[in-house]
């Protein structure tokens, strides 16, 4: 069984996969000061609830955009599951070209989304990820990663609006029935929701025009279903895209430490 860890800026998602599919998926708030033992207490309880044990895990893969969290996630895999985790980075075998100026600068989540989206839906396509940042990533017909766009995330924009304007409250995200708000909260909700819909439609149109061919649009992230309601641009919603990318990457790059009799490794990079 494979332990998959997707460490984002807001949440860390843990999942386990075997030949039958995903056996469980759990998330916890990202905190780079949380230790491997703290992760273990939480995760092992959930595994027990799913009738699984650490001995069921024979490999692990980590994708993270939070370098400070990596040490403790590695220690979790080594100390509690006795496996050496594969860490997603541009230097691995992805099975496709990374056609950008500095591949090492591309967030692992973006490459993972590209890998899973092309494997599942074919190309060419653009992946929109509604995370801490809202990203647009372009994949050509052969699966090559062609680059993309990074914009402020929706929750980040809401918090910035509240922090910068003293009279504007914190609000929840929802789909307003009208564009013209009749009050402050309604106006803010409209600006966020329909403003991002406008960005999604405008950005995908510009990307498609520059790319020179029609593109499928695949969306992922917790807010993808909400924003897909307001536009016809998004053709697929896949909430497990990054997890699937990690699983596929682990298949392409098997780690050499998959047995429980290996010697303890010293922490490296």
Please tag this protein with its features.
disordered C terminus, five-stranded mixed sheet, single chain, alpha/beta, globular, 269 residues
Rg over alpha carbons: 20 Å
- Terminal CA distance: 25 Å
Mean pLDDT over the full residue set: 90
Order of helices and strands: EEEHEHEHEEEHHEHEH
The main pleated sheet reads as: 5 strands, mixed
Q: What portion of the residues fall into strands of 2 or more residues?
A: 15-25%
How many runs of DSSP E, i.e. beta strands?
10
Strand order of the largest sheet: 3-2-1-4-5
Total of DSSP H or I helical runs spanning 4+ residues? 7
In the predicted model, the low-confidence regions spanning at least 5 consecutive residues are 257-269
Question: Helix content range of the residues, please?
Answer: 25-40%
Structural class: alpha/beta
Shape: globular
């Amino acid at each position: 069984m494979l332990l998959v860890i997707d460490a984002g800026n807001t949440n860390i998602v843990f999942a386990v996969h075997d030949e039958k599919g995903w056996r469980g998926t759990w998330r916890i708030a990202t905190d780079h000061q949380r230790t491997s033992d703290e992760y273990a207490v939480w995760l092992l309880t959930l595994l027990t609830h799913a009738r699984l044990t650490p001995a069921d895990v024979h490999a692990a893969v980590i994708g993270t955009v939070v370098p400070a969290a990596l040490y403790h996630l590695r220690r979790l895999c080594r100390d509690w599951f006795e496996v050496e985790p594969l860490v997603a980075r541009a230097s691995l075998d992805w099975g496709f070209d990374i056609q950008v100026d500095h591949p090492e600068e591309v967030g692992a989540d973006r490459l993972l989304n590209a890998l899973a989206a092309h494997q599942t839906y074919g190309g060419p396509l653009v992946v929109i990820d509604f995370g801490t940042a809202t990203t647009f990533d372009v994949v050509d017909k052969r699966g090559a990663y062609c680059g993309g766009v990074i914009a402020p995330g929706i929750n980040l924009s809401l918090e910035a609006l509240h922090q910068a304007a003293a009279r504007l409250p914190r609000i929840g995200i929802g789909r307003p029935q009208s564009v013209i708000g009749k009050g402050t909260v309604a106006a803010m909700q409209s600006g966020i929701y329909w403003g991002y819909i406008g960005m999604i439609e405008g950005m995908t149109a510009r990307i498609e025009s520059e790319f020179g061919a029609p593109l499928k649009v695949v969306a992922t992230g917790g807010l993808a279903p909400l924003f897909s309601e307001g536009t016809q641009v998004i053709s697929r919603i896949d909430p497990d895209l990054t997890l699937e990318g990690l699983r596929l990457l682990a298949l392409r790059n098997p780690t050499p430490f998959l047995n429980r009799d290996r010697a303890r490794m010293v922490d490296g990079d």
